[in-house]
């Protein structure tokens, strides 16, 4: 079972930036599409960005133009650069490998997530 560890969260002011990292424990990571997800308390987890093994990306409308997903297959790591943050981006952020279908259908166990809080 691949283990995922997210890092890079924190408190940031509106308009600020953060970069999240997610490192997988196994090199098979390189063969999987990866996604960044976020969960606001009381709401379901949503996928906000995806990247294929070759690097093709797509984004939810809510983050398009502000967030950038990337990956380094040699480091088994996927990144999420978040710019122009707003309080609506406050959430716990997770990464995983989507299976397709429903958002929660993923290949691996969820990590602990990274808390991002956007507040002045």
What's the quick description here?
This protein is mainly beta and 120 residues long. Helices cover 0% and strands 43% of the residues. It contains no helices and ten strands.
Q: Can you put this structure into words, describing what you see?
A:
The chain has no helices and 10 strands. By secondary structure, the protein is mainly β. A hairpin with a 5-residue loop joins strand 5 and strand 6 (57-59). 29% of the residues are buried.
Strand order of the largest sheet: 2-10-9-4-5-6
> Helicity range of the residues?
under 10%
**Share of residues in strands:** 35-45%
Task: List the uncertain runs.
Answer: none
Radius of gyration: 13 Å
Helices, by number, come to 0
Q: What is the makeup of the main sheet? A: 6 strands, mixed
**Overall strand count:** 10
Order of helices and strands: EEEEEEEEEE
Q: Give the overall shape.
A: globular
Secondary-structure-based class equals: mainly beta
Q: Quick check: average pLDDT?
A: 95
| Terminal CA distance | 40 Å
């Amino acid at each position: 079972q691949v283990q995922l560890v997210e890092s890079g969260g924190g408190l940031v002011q509106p308009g600020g930036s953060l970069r999240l990292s997610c490192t997988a424990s196994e090199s098979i990571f390189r063969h999987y599409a990866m996604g960044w997800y976020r969960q606001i308390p009381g709401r379901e987890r949503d996928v906000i960005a995806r990247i294929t093994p070759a690097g093709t990306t797509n984004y939810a409308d809510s983050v398009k133009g502000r967030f950038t997903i990337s990956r380094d297959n040699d480091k088994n790591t996927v990144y999420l650069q978040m710019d122009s943050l707003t309080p609506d981006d406050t959430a716990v952020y997770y990464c995983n490998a989507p299976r397709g279908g429903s958002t929660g259908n993923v290949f691996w166990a969820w990590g602990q997530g990274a808390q991002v809080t956007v507040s002045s």
